[in-house]
Design a protein that fits this description.
about 300 residues, 5-stranded mixed beta sheet, 3-stranded parallel beta sheet, alpha/beta, about 35% helix, 10 helices, 8 strands
Length: about 300
């Protein structure tokens, strides 16, 4: 059992990852060699990767149906991981609730808000930026690429030149560059109920990966999630150090919740310091024995 590799939080090009489902599968097989693997693709608001994954016949690989859904909590966008749900029911829901037209409209609204905030802070950017795909993060990525082109912006906000702008500013309600992007999203209770209605389990994702939140605020959020019916918490993630991991372990023990974990792997072009199965600086090491909700391994 200790020789089983586990990664329950990965992304493909079906949402915002670098590699296609097939390419990611090949990378995992190359890394695992002869070891058994428990793996889940948790693309944002999307399960299209499973059109390929369902064709895989590999006796050393256990695939757990997964998806990462956005939801609104106290005027902020957060993420929840869904596992072991009915793929067909989830796909029908996602194609309706997160269809292409809605995705494009949402990214266009985020882009407009981001442009206005940058304009109000005297930042220079290209006015002809347009949303084309509607993929998650498109508005943010297009604007950041444009902002980085103009050196004068660094005098106003030096953080534009580094990778931490998203968490330090864009999703930080205490920053003047915060963009409120939780509109038209389900709330915490609604998203948990949707997951349960498809026979799935709901786990709060990367609890400490939201900028500007204190430990007390994180624990309040987790308590609200528990009261809303959440099944578990992602304990291991590249953003969670040993102290935070212990805080989460104590919480799930006290509240009789389940554990999950994954690296949040996106590829080499996004979060390039995060590696499959091991996270950042080997800080993710998931023991299958702790995942009591996964059967028949």
């Amino acid at each position: 059992m200790n020789n089983i590799l586990v990664d329950l939080h990965t992304h493909t090009s079906c949402s915002d990852g670098e590699f296609s489902p097939e390419q990611l599968y090949n990378l995992i097989k190359e890394y695992a060699k002869d070891k058994k693997v428990v793996w889940s693709v948790t693309d944002h608001n999307c399960v299209d990767a499973y059109d390929f994954l369902k064709q895989i016949q590999d006796d050393k690989l256990t695939i757990i149906n997964g998806c990462e859904l956005e939801f609104s909590y106290k005027n902020k966008t957060k993420d929840i991981l869904a596992y072991n749900f009915d793929i067909n029911k989830m796909k029908i829901f996602l194609n309706e609730y997160y269809n292409l037209d809605k995705k494009i409209k949402r990214q266009e609204e985020i882009l407009t808000k981001f442009k206005n905030i940058c304009k109000n802070n005297n930042l220079k950017f290209d006015n002809n930026i347009e949303i084309k795909t509607g993929k998650i993060g498109e508005a943010y990525n297009l604007m950041m690429k444009s902002l980085k082109k103009y050196e004068c912006n660094l005098k106003i906000c030096p953080d534009i030149g580094v990778s931490g702008f998203y968490r330090k500013h864009f999703i930080n309600q205490k920053s003047q560059f915060y963009v409120k992007d939780d509109f038209e999203l389900l709330n915490l209770k609604q998203v948990i109920d949707v997951i349960h209605s498809f026979g799935g389990l709901a786990f709060i994702a990367h609890s400490f990966d939201y900028a500007g939140e204190t430990i007390e605020e994180v624990l309040t959020f987790l308590t609200d999630a528990k009261n809303a019916g959440v099944d578990g918490v992602e304990i291991m993630h590249f953003s969670i150090d040993r102290n935070k991991e212990q805080i989460l372990r104590n919480f799930i023990k006290e509240n009789n919740l389940l554990e999950s974990g994954g690296t949040d792997y996106h590829g080499k072009l996004v979060k390039n310091t995060v590696k499959l199965f091991t996270g950042r600086d080997n800080n993710v090491n998931i023991n299958i024995k702790n995942l009591k909700w996964i059967k028949n391994i």
